[in-house]
């Protein structure tokens, strides 16, 4: 059973397309998809074995959805951002059936919450939460970044690679006439990507202020704000416009994947300052394209780049850099495309899914 507990289609559509594709070799009748979101259900209902859960989309509803269906399935695959409160509410007997395909983000309650009570309760709740996570069968991950994120917080936890790849996603990073297609164009601005979404984790405001010292240079700052916190998005857009004027491009609409791939390819510098696993589609594609990446000194991206021996720069260093140093390309002595961080062809993702399902099937049969 696949629990689609996110009001989102970009990944779920890929998932169902992969399971249903005869060339991928899955038995689609073995896979049930459940969602509480009307828009997701309406879009997907004709594509596979999709059911609508009509009792809400909150934490208690999620617990009820999993609990009421757990007895009729061998495994529960949860897709989406971790619902920490719901994990605390699940029966322990159900946890061993769960494979949680995380979409990045924080696995635990923040000790820096603006809510004082939540901040005080974070330590004891996180202790309980860690034990609950350890009761899961496994975590599902996208690539090495997620593996390192889980290992940081839950040492020894098994991870399965669960890609949402489709042929059009492959083209995002793999179809390229040149890794640096703009390098020969004269008088073009240095294209700078800041963040990937409208959430505070990307530290847009801090980064924009750091970049403001280059506002008289030939640059264009690109802010991808197509989803996230609406109030925060407006604040970031306003600051970008105030600091850079016409040199700031604000993107609030989703692009077709091929167009977004070309957009990423046109960037000279990409700044992803999130400390945790997020934006892996962007990060992976930028690594494959061998872009100049600026990342957080304490973040999991840095750890991943170190493990793979790939070059990077730190956002902390921007304040002390000349513009020419800031904008200069990084030299990848090891091809980014060949690293474990780069997007893999769809066939690799399908093989990993089959490997995971075989392992789980053997466990289910052994328990009978």
Keyphrases for this structure?
368 residues, seven-stranded parallel beta sheet, 15 helices, 41% helix
Explain what you see:
The structure is a single chain. The strands form 2 sheets. The protein has a 7-stranded parallel β-sheet, sandwiched between helices. A 6-stranded parallel β-sheet has the order 10-9-8-11-12-13, sandwiched between helices. With about 375 residues, the protein is an alpha/beta fold. β12 (about 290-295), α13 (about 300-310) and β13 (about 315) form a beta-alpha-beta unit. It is globular, with a radius of gyration of 21 Å. α9 packs parallel to α10 (about 230-245). The longest helix has 21 residues, at about 345-365. It starts with a strand and ends with a helix. The protein has helices spanning about 10-20, 40-45, 60-70, 85-90, 90-95, 115-135, 145-155, 165-175, 205-210, 230-245, 255-265, 280-290, 300-310, 325, 345-365; strands spanning about 1-5, 35, 50, 75-80, 100, 140, 160, 190-195, 220-225, 250, 270, 290-295, 315. It is built from 15 helices and 13 strands.
Topology overview:
Elements: E1 2-4, H1 12-20, E2 33-35, H2 38-44, E3 50-52, H3 59-69, E4 76-79, H4 84-89, H5 92-95, E5 98-101, H6 116-134, E6 138-141, H7 144-153, E7 159-161, H8 167-174, E8 190-194, H9 204-211, E9 219-224, H10 230-244, E10 248-251, H11 257-265, E11 269-272, H12 280-288, E12 292-295, H13 300-308, E13 313-314, H14 323-327, H15 346-366
Parallel strand pairs: 1-2, 1-4, 2-3, 4-5, 5-6, 6-7, 8-9, 8-11, 9-10, 11-12, 12-13
Helix pairs in contact: 7-13, 8-11, 9-10
């Amino acid at each position: 059973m696949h629990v689609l507990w996110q009001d989102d289609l970009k990944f779920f559509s890929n998932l169902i397309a992969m399971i249903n594709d005869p060339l991928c070799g899955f038995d689609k009748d073995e896979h049930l998809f459940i969602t509480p979101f009307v828009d997701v259900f309406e879009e997907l209902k004709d594509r596979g074995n999709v059911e609508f859960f009509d009792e809400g989309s909150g934490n208690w509803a999620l617990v009820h959805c999993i609990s009421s269906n757990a007895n009729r399935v061998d495994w529960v695959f949860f897709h989406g951002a971790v619902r920490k409160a719901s994990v605390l509410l699940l029966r322990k007997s159900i946890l061993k059936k769960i494979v949680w395909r995380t979409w990045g983000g924080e696995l635990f309650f923040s000790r820096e919450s603006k809510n004082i009570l939540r901040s005080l309760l974070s330590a004891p709740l996180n202790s309980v939460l860690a034990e609950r996570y350890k009761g899961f069968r496994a975590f599902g991950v996208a690539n090495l970044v997620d593996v390192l994120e889980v290992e940081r917080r839950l040492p020894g936890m098994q991870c399965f690679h669960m890609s949402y790849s489709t042929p059009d996603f492959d083209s995002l990073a793999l179809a390229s006439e040149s890794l640096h297609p703009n390098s020969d164009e004269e008088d073009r601005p240095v294209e700078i990507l800041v963040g990937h979404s409208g959430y505070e984790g990307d530290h847009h405001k801090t980064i924009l202020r750091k970049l403001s010292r280059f506002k008289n240079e030939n640059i264009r700052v690109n802010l991808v704000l197509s989803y996230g916190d609406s109030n925060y998005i407006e604040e970031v857009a306003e600051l970008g416009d105030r600091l850079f004027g016409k040199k700031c491009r604000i993107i609030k609409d989703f692009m077709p994947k091929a167009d977004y791939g070309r957009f990423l390819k046109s960037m000279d510098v990409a700044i992803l300052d999130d400390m945790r696993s997020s934006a892996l589609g962007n990060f992976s594609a930028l690594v494959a394209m061998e872009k100049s990446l600026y990342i957080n000194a304490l973040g999991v991206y840095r750890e991943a780049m170190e493990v793979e021996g790939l070059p990077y720069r730190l956002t902390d260093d921007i304040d002390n850099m000349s513009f020419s140093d800031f904008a200069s390309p990084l030299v990848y002595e090891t091809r980014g495309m060949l690293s474990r961080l780069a997007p893999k062809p769809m066939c690799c993702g399908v093989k990993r899914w089959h490997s995971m399902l075989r392992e789980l099937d053997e466990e289910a049969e052994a328990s009978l």
